[in-house]
Design a protein that fits this description.
Order of helices and strands: EHEHEHEH
CATH architecture: 3-Layer(aba) Sandwich
Largest sheet: 4 strands, parallel
CATH class: Alpha Beta
Strand content: 5-15%
Low-confidence stretches: 1-10
Radius of gyration: 14 Å
Number of strands: 4
Shape: globular
Distance between the termini: 20 Å
Number of domains: 1
Structural class: alpha/beta
Helix content: 25-40%
Oligomer: single chain
Mean pLDDT: 88
CATH topology: Rossmann fold
Length: 151
Protein backbone atom coordinates (compact mmCIF):
# COMPACT_ATOMS: atom_id res chain seq x y z
CA UNK A 1 0.00 0.00 0.00
CA UNK A 2 1.57 3.28 -1.05
CA UNK A 3 1.30 6.06 1.47
CA UNK A 4 1.98 8.81 -1.04
CA UNK A 5 4.64 11.52 -0.94
CA UNK A 6 4.10 12.53 2.66
CA UNK A 7 3.92 10.51 5.81
CA UNK A 8 0.65 10.24 7.72
CA UNK A 9 0.82 11.83 11.16
CA UNK A 10 0.40 8.45 12.82
CA UNK A 11 -0.76 5.11 11.51
CA UNK A 12 -3.76 3.56 13.15
CA UNK A 13 -3.33 0.25 14.91
CA UNK A 14 -0.21 -1.24 16.39
CA UNK A 15 3.24 -0.21 15.19
CA UNK A 16 4.91 -2.42 12.60
CA UNK A 17 6.89 -5.41 13.85
CA UNK A 18 9.56 -4.93 11.16
CA UNK A 19 10.87 -1.85 9.35
CA UNK A 20 13.28 -1.40 6.47
CA UNK A 21 14.84 2.03 5.92
CA UNK A 22 16.19 2.65 2.40
CA UNK A 23 18.24 5.51 0.99
CA UNK A 24 20.64 5.89 -1.90
CA UNK A 25 23.81 4.25 -0.60
CA UNK A 26 23.04 3.07 2.97
CA UNK A 27 25.76 5.38 4.25
CA UNK A 28 24.01 8.24 6.06
CA UNK A 29 20.21 8.51 6.19
CA UNK A 30 19.10 4.88 6.42
CA UNK A 31 21.76 3.72 8.92
CA UNK A 32 20.97 6.77 11.05
CA UNK A 33 17.27 5.85 10.99
CA UNK A 34 18.09 2.23 11.79
CA UNK A 35 20.20 3.20 14.84
CA UNK A 36 17.53 5.56 16.18
CA UNK A 37 14.72 3.04 15.70
CA UNK A 38 16.68 0.24 17.36
CA UNK A 39 17.42 2.49 20.34
CA UNK A 40 13.89 3.86 20.76
CA UNK A 41 11.89 0.79 19.72
CA UNK A 42 14.04 -2.29 20.40
CA UNK A 43 11.11 -4.68 19.88
CA UNK A 44 10.78 -3.62 16.25
CA UNK A 45 13.02 -5.60 13.90
CA UNK A 46 14.87 -2.87 12.01
CA UNK A 47 17.24 -3.03 9.04
CA UNK A 48 18.61 -0.52 6.57
CA UNK A 49 19.81 -0.78 2.99
CA UNK A 50 20.62 1.35 -0.02
CA UNK A 51 19.74 1.28 -3.66
CA UNK A 52 23.50 1.06 -4.16
CA UNK A 53 26.17 -0.03 -1.70
CA UNK A 54 28.16 2.93 -0.41
CA UNK A 55 30.81 3.44 2.24
CA UNK A 56 30.10 4.03 5.93
CA UNK A 57 30.19 7.72 6.84
CA UNK A 58 32.11 8.39 10.10
CA UNK A 59 30.17 11.60 10.78
CA UNK A 60 27.01 9.51 11.28
CA UNK A 61 28.56 7.73 14.28
CA UNK A 62 29.85 11.01 15.67
CA UNK A 63 26.44 12.72 15.53
CA UNK A 64 24.60 9.68 16.89
CA UNK A 65 26.95 9.54 19.90
CA UNK A 66 26.45 13.26 20.57
CA UNK A 67 22.72 12.67 20.87
CA UNK A 68 23.14 9.59 23.08
CA UNK A 69 22.42 6.96 20.44
CA UNK A 70 24.72 3.98 20.08
CA UNK A 71 26.04 3.80 16.52
CA UNK A 72 25.68 0.37 14.98
CA UNK A 73 28.69 -1.47 13.64
CA UNK A 74 27.45 -0.63 10.18
CA UNK A 75 28.57 -2.15 6.91
CA UNK A 76 26.53 -0.62 4.08
CA UNK A 77 24.47 -3.07 2.06
CA UNK A 78 22.34 -2.82 -1.03
CA UNK A 79 18.72 -3.91 -1.20
CA UNK A 80 19.87 -6.91 -3.26
CA UNK A 81 22.03 -8.08 -0.35
CA UNK A 82 19.23 -8.15 2.24
CA UNK A 83 18.81 -11.46 4.03
CA UNK A 84 15.13 -10.72 4.70
CA UNK A 85 12.68 -9.82 1.98
CA UNK A 86 9.50 -9.05 3.91
CA UNK A 87 8.89 -6.06 6.16
CA UNK A 88 5.67 -4.58 7.53
CA UNK A 89 6.87 -1.09 6.68
CA UNK A 90 9.43 0.20 4.21
CA UNK A 91 10.49 3.81 4.71
CA UNK A 92 12.33 5.42 1.84
CA UNK A 93 14.46 8.47 2.53
CA UNK A 94 15.50 9.43 -1.01
CA UNK A 95 13.54 9.69 -4.30
CA UNK A 96 15.45 6.93 -6.10
CA UNK A 97 14.95 4.60 -3.12
CA UNK A 98 11.22 5.27 -3.15
CA UNK A 99 10.82 4.38 -6.82
CA UNK A 100 12.87 1.20 -6.43
CA UNK A 101 10.95 0.13 -3.31
CA UNK A 102 7.61 0.60 -5.07
CA UNK A 103 8.82 -1.42 -8.06
CA UNK A 104 10.16 -4.23 -5.88
CA UNK A 105 7.12 -4.53 -3.61
CA UNK A 106 4.58 -4.55 -6.45
CA UNK A 107 1.42 -6.18 -5.16
CA UNK A 108 2.84 -7.19 -1.76
CA UNK A 109 0.86 -6.19 1.32
CA UNK A 110 3.47 -3.79 2.67
CA UNK A 111 3.32 -0.12 3.52
CA UNK A 112 5.84 2.00 1.64
CA UNK A 113 6.25 5.53 2.98
CA UNK A 114 8.41 8.28 1.57
CA UNK A 115 10.05 10.55 4.11
CA UNK A 116 12.08 13.03 2.04
CA UNK A 117 15.31 13.76 3.88
CA UNK A 118 18.19 15.99 2.79
CA UNK A 119 21.61 14.56 2.04
CA UNK A 120 23.95 16.32 4.49
CA UNK A 121 27.03 15.24 2.55
CA UNK A 122 25.96 17.66 -0.19
CA UNK A 123 26.39 20.66 2.13
CA UNK A 124 29.31 22.85 1.18
CA UNK A 125 31.13 24.91 3.76
CA UNK A 126 33.12 24.46 6.92
CA UNK A 127 33.28 21.29 8.98
CA UNK A 128 30.98 22.97 11.53
CA UNK A 129 28.39 23.63 8.82
CA UNK A 130 28.63 20.02 7.65
CA UNK A 131 28.22 18.66 11.19
CA UNK A 132 25.21 20.96 11.68
CA UNK A 133 23.62 19.49 8.53
CA UNK A 134 24.06 15.97 9.95
CA UNK A 135 22.62 17.09 13.31
CA UNK A 136 19.62 18.61 11.54
CA UNK A 137 19.09 15.36 9.63
CA UNK A 138 19.22 13.36 12.86
CA UNK A 139 16.64 15.69 14.47
CA UNK A 140 14.31 15.24 11.49
CA UNK A 141 14.71 11.46 11.41
CA UNK A 142 14.20 11.08 15.16
CA UNK A 143 11.06 13.24 15.10
CA UNK A 144 9.56 11.24 12.22
CA UNK A 145 10.37 7.91 13.89
CA UNK A 146 8.86 8.99 17.20
CA UNK A 147 5.74 10.29 15.47
CA UNK A 148 5.24 7.25 13.24
CA UNK A 149 6.12 4.41 15.62
CA UNK A 150 4.67 5.66 18.90
CA UNK A 151 1.19 4.26 19.52
Amino acid sequence: MEAGPTMPSRASGPPPSSVLFVCGMNAIRSPMAEAVTRALFPRIYTVSAGVHKGNADPIVAEVLKEKGFEPLPHQPQSMEELADSYFDLIVTLAPEAHHIALDLTGAQAVEVEYWPMPDPSAVEGSRAQTIDAYRDLLRRIEARIRERLTT
